[in-house]
Amino acid sequence: MFHKSVLPVLALALCGGPAWADTGDETIARARQAYYSLASRGFTGLECSVRPDWGTIFAEERKQNPTGTDRGVAALNRVRFTLSLKGGHDLTVAHGAFGTENAREIEGLQNVSAGLDKVLQGVFAAFGTFVVDSPLPSPSTAFKLAEQPGQWLVTSAAGDTAMSIALGKDLVIRRTEVRTPSGISTLVPTFKTTPDGLLLGGYRTTYRPTDGSDRATDLEVALAYQTIDGLQIPRTISMLDRSLTPPNTIPISLEDCRVSRTAAPAAPAAPTSAAPPTAAPPASLAGTWHGTGHQVPQGPHQEWQIVMKIGESGGSIDYPSLGCGGTLTPLAADGGAARYRETLTYGRDKCIDGGTVTASIVAGKLSWRWTGQFGSQDFAAAAELER
Fold first, then answer.
1. Which of 21, 162, 269, 340 could form an SS bridge with 357, CB 3.0 to 4.6 Å?
2. How far is CA 72 from the centre of its chain?
3. Within 10 Å of residue 386's Cβ, how many Cβ atoms?
4. C-alpha pair distances (Å), 379 with each of 57, 130, 257, 318
5. Of 16, 19, 12, 38, which is closest to residue 137 (Cα–Cα)?
């Protein structure tokens, strides 16, 4: 039943983290920069109308009682549901008048509303952690990082709760796990590649009790996005509750969304003639940088060499082990970071042309991120370069 679908308790507080050991700052800093972040774009809140597809949600019930289910779905369609998100984790789900004075109908509508609230609380807990903020600890926070074959493992303990993140060498989060005396929660995320970083596209989460209770859950969530005021905001949520027999599908649309954000800096006065040139890259980026890149999804070459030269008016980039390279044209500069358009001048039959390169200095090294597209497939790559 829809109103019994409860998301497992995920310790998504990994983003802040209790006392960690002090190793791996540079790796975590590079990883955090690889992800799309609403907080870094001034996001402070969201308000939307919520429109669940009640007909799909109660499809199984309709097979047993079509008349009663149709009446209930019609009643739910008359109720207006809204959500309000403050910051990344303070979500309120509200509803309008039920439009009935029948006590039994009111009780049923209240149960369904409570189920919707639990579903949205769970989804936005993940959204707040992976999209608004970051599930990875901040560089200023102490943490423990252990290198394993093909990945790093970030671990922490707070009282009787143990938490871990499996982070691939390509900087993609593969899995989070939380262990408590009562059970084990896992979350396996999937990401969409965007020019501004990896964006949460969905996840599968499970909860396995270890205290003898019968509260196991297995949920799969897919997110599609819309652009509101330049920000990526969920447009549709599709949840599949695999812990039920048969599995229950819960489709939800978010409409008429409004975002709030910190005030943007005042735009400079428009020039009277030509448009202003692109801001010069920070002087700290200037020089020749070397390192090893990792691509997502992985191609035939799992690792490859990078030689990147940056000057005031742009630069060049070469991938010696791949046999390709080209020029870098500045697109934008902000603080200590800069974005470039990569144009291949040789090896176009071997590498993807027209990608975007983002570079910034982290702990004395250059954090390098590349995004591009070939056909309908998005690709991303990351590296840590040294002079």
1. 340
2. 35
3. 10
4. 35, 19, 29, 18
5. 16
For residues 85 and 284, give the distance between their C-alpha atoms in angstroms, rounded to a whole number.
38
- Share the mean pLDDT of the chain: 82
Q: CA-to-CA distance for 130 and 192, rounded, in angstroms?
A: 12
Pinpoint the residues of the chain covered by CATH 2.40.128.
Answer: 283-386
For residues 285 and 287, give the distance between their C-alpha atoms in angstroms, rounded to a whole number: 6
The class of domain 283-386 in CATH terms is mainly beta
Q: What is the spatial distance between Cα 278 and Cα 275, in angstroms, rounded to a whole number?
A: 9
| Confidence (pTM) | 0.66
pLDDT in tens, 115-165: 999 999 999 999 999 999 888 877 556 678 888 888 899 887 777 888 899
Report whether 290 contacts 307 (CB < 8 A): yes
Region of poorest pLDDT, from 102-111, 153-162, 284-293, 322-331: 153-162
Asked whether the predicted pLDDT for residue 262 surpasses 90, the reply is no
Determine contact, residues 201/223, Cβ cutoff 8 Å.
yes
Q: What would the DSSP string read from start to end of 122-173?
A: HHHHHHIIIIIS-SSPPTTS-BEEEEETTEEEEEEEETTEEEEEEEETTS-E
* Nearest-angstrom CA–CA distance, 267 and 278: 14
- Cis status, amide bond into 297, omega within 30 of 0: yes
pLDDT score of 274: 40
